[in-house]
Write a structure and sequence with these properties.
The chain is mainly alpha-helical. It has 14 helices and no strands. The longest helix has about 35 residues. The radius of gyration is 25 Å and the shape is flat.
């Protein structure tokens, strides 16, 4: 009986070894990513204890006084946690929704271009903003929005209109930040959708043309349904970072110490930066980062569960 039971186990073991041998090239390709996440994501995890202590340089992380949830309570009482959460989530929702709409639109428009040389030139020009440094983007924005020397106020003064104090007006910055983000990322983000459209069976498109479907109908009834799985996967990936702000964009556009704009531009990343570099409050910064990670994990699991209920074939796991 024991021998009979051990045979399936041996077969399973041999099957796993065979799968490992057959997949060794793929595993080797994944090795750099695995090493990266082990070093930068898993090894630093014991440092999360920093969020529950009142850190000081003399005692170190694990010998500093343990304060439990006091760091989180302070964030809640001061209202910083709700402001940071709202700003970060609101901006990311705008980035995800408007960004995907813009990327899908650009990908479809590129697919409709018949001149190959014009399509290549258009793609190249749209990719360029993504490779521009955030520092340079901040400099360009300052040269446009500066009260004394900015291009915008120069035009307004020439028209005998009142100049705009952009860096003192919090209500203007959600529009400025979202427009800048779309300008920088739309061209690059459209690559995935454009590649998905390229995988569409040309016979289906030709059949629709024979049946008399115009370009708009092909887009509505063929292209968009074809892009649905790609959109759902990218959406789930994006939701994982819904509480992770674009630090480079916000820091270089707004700056870390412009208190007049905190109400509408302060996100978790800029708050953590100030906590670490200005206030030297490592415990508070760690508490916010831990909250950010747990929130993102819950959002991804919840979103994937909803997708699995509605459309199981499009869920991540």
């Amino acid at each position: 009986m024991d021998t009979a039971k051990s045979i399936p186990a041996v077969r399973v073991k041999n099957s796993k070894r065979k799968q490992f041998r057959n997949s060794r090239v793929l595993l080797l390709m994944c090795l750099p990513a695995i090493v990266f996440f082990c070093i930068f994501a898993y090894l630093p995890m014991p440092g999360l204890y920093l969020a529950f202590v009142k850190y000081n340089y003399t005692d170190g992380i694990f010998s500093s006084p343990f304060v439990g949830w006091d760091n989180f309570k302070f964030l809640i009482i001061t209202g910083d946690l709700w402001r940071l959460t709202f700003n970060t989530v609101a901006y990311n929702i705008a980035f995800i929704v408007l960004g995907n709409i813009a990327q899908i639109t650009v990908a479809i428009l590129l697919n409709e271009i018949r001149k190959k040389w014009f399509k290549k030139i258009s793609q190249t020009l749209m990719f360029l903003p993504y490779f521009i440094s955030a520092v340079l983007i901040g400099l360009l924005a300052y040269n446009i929005l500066s009260y004394d020397y900015g291009l915008l106020n120069g035009i307004l003064r020439s028209l005998h209109l009142d100049p705009v104090k952009a860096y003192s007006e919090p209500h203007l910055w959600p529009f400025i930040i979202v427009i800048t983000y779309l300008w920088q990322t739309t061209g690059y983000g459209s690559i995935v959708y454009f590649a998905a459209i390229m995988g569409l069976d040309s016979e289906i498109v030709e059949a629709s043309e024979i049946d008399g479907a115009n370009a708009f109908q092909r887009i509505i009834y063929i292209v968009l349904p074809w892009l649905k799985p790609t959109f759902i996967i990218l959406l789930l990936f994006s939701l994982g970072g819904i509480l992770k702000g674009n630090f480079g964009l916000f820091f270089n556009l707004v700056g870390a110490n412009n208190t007049a704009l905190y109400a509408s531009t302060d996100i978790i990343e800029t708050y953590v930066f100030r906590s670490l570099m200005t206030n030297f409050n490592f415990s508070m910064g760690s508490a916010v980062s831990l909250y950010q990670s747990v929130f993102g994990f819950v959002v991804v699991i919840t979103a994937n569960w909803i997708v699995k209920k509605v459309s199981p074939e499009n869920s991540l796991f």
